[in-house]
Amino acid sequence: MGENTTPLDVRDADRVRTLTLARPEALNAFDEALYDALTIALHEASDDPTVAVVLLTGQGRAFSTGTDLAEMAERITNPDFVPGEHGFLGLIDALSGFDKPLVLAINGLGLGIGTTVIGFADLVFKSEDARLKCPFTSLGVAPEAASSYLLPRLVGRQNAAWVLLSSEWISAAEAHEMGLVWRLCAPDDLLRVATEHATRLARLPISSLRAVKRTMVEPLARQIAEARERENQCFADLMGGPANSEALAAFAEGRPADFTGLPDGA
Questions:
Q1: Degrees (nearest 5) of the Cα angle 79, 81, 83?
Q2: Could you tell me if residue 27 is inside a domain?
């Protein structure tokens, strides 16, 4: 996929820092550079006394289509692959530890981390034409970003089971009905509405905003850490295995994956 030397756009206004994923040519898929850029930006926003709220959105027709599968395949096959400084796990650390309100404006397609990031958000606005998907089973891997713990808390066991097990698209209406997102907006109104709400929060004292967030998320810290550890172990066990290899080969060849001929248990 094409390279973008500035994978993240950062803008400040009225104590709101808007972070815009800026790889539209790659549907804002996360390569190592974007993982690092967003991780650093979250740390900087947390430390900046002039920032009260962070708003995260994407350029183009996607919010984020998750991990860059071309780079994932290279990571598996190229022994000389050089990972980023922070990578996926560093980003999840930053999201989990982010101590100010995090508002999402989901402008388009959201796959993988483009959906599971919702578990770490405080308010989620979504375009009426945006769709979400957790494609883990279709990629032959496991959940990520503590989604196996956070999604059931958000939407209930059975809704979360369908989202995580099925690898099927979730419409905007379905996401709103199950409580995965807070508000639906017309596409042209999304950023304005999300920014208005973020700005209203940002007028309040940062110390109080931090205190509210801490009291809400600190009781979950141990369970989030344990869920991440379970998921990471499952992901490591499955990555590069028969199902994952078939999924990546199918992606590279532009065909549907066929898992029916895999060894028993794969």
A1: 135
A2: yes
Q: What are the backbone dihedrals phi and psi of residue 146, each rounded to the nearest 5 degrees, phi first?
A: 60, 20
- Three-point CA angle 141, 164, 243, nearest 5°: 25
Q: For residue 100, is it within any domain? A: yes
Distance CA 33, CA 87 (A): 8
Confidence category of residue 70, pLDDT binned at 50, 70, 90: confident
Within a domain: 132: yes
- Asked if 82 and 33 touch (Cβ cutoff 8 Å), the reply is no
Of 155, 156, 162, the C-alpha closest to 134 is 162
Containing domain of residue 95, as a range? 8-188+205-215
Instruction: Give pLDDT tens digits for 179-217.
Output: 999 999 999 999 999 999 999 999 999 999 999 999 999
pLDDT score at 69: 79
Q: Is 99 exposed, middle or buried (0-12, 13-18, 19+ CB in 10 A)?
A: middle
pLDDT in tens, 117-171: 999 999 999 999 999 999 999 999 999 999 999 999 999 999 999 999 999 999 9
Query: Could you tell me how far CA 119 lies from the centroid of its own chain?
Result: 8
Distance CA 38, CA 87 (A): 10
Q: What is the pLDDT of residue 251?
A: 86
Number of domains comprising the chain: 1
Whether residue 76 lies inside any domain: the answer is: yes
Q: What is the DSSP letter of 63?
A: E
Whole-angstrom distance between the N-terminal and C-terminal Cα of the chain? 29
